[in-house]
Amino acid sequence: MNEFEIQVEALGKACLIGTFESGSPEWHEARAGIGGSDIGTICGVNRWQTRQQLLESRISPPETISPPSLPMRLGTAFEPSIRRLWAEDNSQWLTVQETGTWQSLENGFWKANPDGFIRWNDGEIGILEIKFSQATDLQESWLYQVNWYLMVLGLRRAVLVQCKGNKFVEYSIEADPHIQAEMRTAAKLFEEETKNGIQPS
């Protein structure tokens, strides 16, 4: 466990489960539950997947895990380089550490798998989220994903770095209590439906 992870765990909101190779069986097992990539779908702000599709996949999971798409593979491949280059460009006022998978102490079904932790020069710890995307603006599903990580880990602020073509686009995000209240309610209902095998009407 690195210094940043020790500080985050000391907040008493979540514990580090471990660090696993992306896409491995251990990685999938550790992420079981509700994670940042799920919450936008659960709250209805993910245009690529509906809540019903996600719920059906959890109630009746496929026998084999679908291989990641090319955009997902590219994102995974470029993430370490983007994190390193962005950290180098901003080294005057912050440092960055990668991290693993976290589990909420409030609800063990809630997971967080941020792309890294930031520590600004004032000592505050926050989230780094990386997107390899040509999107023209901050996607709502990204906003929910980052707020989920902030909520689970008990942190206040984050930077989402989008690698778009030949430049980095940065979005500063602060914890939004209204979004987080919405996510709590939606996540609890989704968990109940998943565990009880309730199909949406």
Structure description:
This protein is an alpha+beta fold and 201 residues long. The protein has 7 helices and 8 strands; from the N terminus they run αβααααβββββαββα. It has helices at 3-9, 25-30, 36-42, 51-59, 70-89, 140-153, 177-196; strands at 14-18, 94-97, 101-104, 111-112, 116-120, 125-132, 157-164, 167-174. It has a 5-stranded mixed β-sheet. Strand 6 (125-132), helix 6 and strand 7 form a beta-alpha-beta unit. Helix 3 (36-42) packs across helix 6. The longest helix is centred in the middle third of the chain and has 20 residues, at 70-89. It starts with a helix and ends in a 5-residue tail after the last helix.
In short:
By secondary structure, the chain is of the alpha+beta class. Helix content is 41%, strand content 22%.
Q: What key attributes describe this structure?
A:
alpha+beta, three-stranded antiparallel beta sheet, 8 strands, 22% strand, globular
What does the radius of gyration come to?
17 Å
Number of strands: 8
**Mean pLDDT figure:** 91
Stretches with pLDDT under 50, minimum 5 residues: none
Helix and strand content put the structural class at alpha+beta
- Classify the beta-strand content into a percent band: 15-25%
Tell me the helix content: 40-55%
**What is the string of SSEs from the N terminus onward?**
HEHHHHEEEEEHEEH
Largest sheet: 5 strands, mixed
Write the layout of secondary structure elements.
Blueprint: H1 3-9, E1 14-18, H2 25-30, H3 36-42, H4 51-59, H5 70-89, E2 94-97, E3 101-104, E4 111-112, E5 116-120, E6 125-132, H6 140-153, E7 157-164, E8 167-174, H7 177-196
Parallel strand pairs: 6-7
Antiparallel strand pairs: 1-3, 2-5, 3-4, 5-6, 7-8
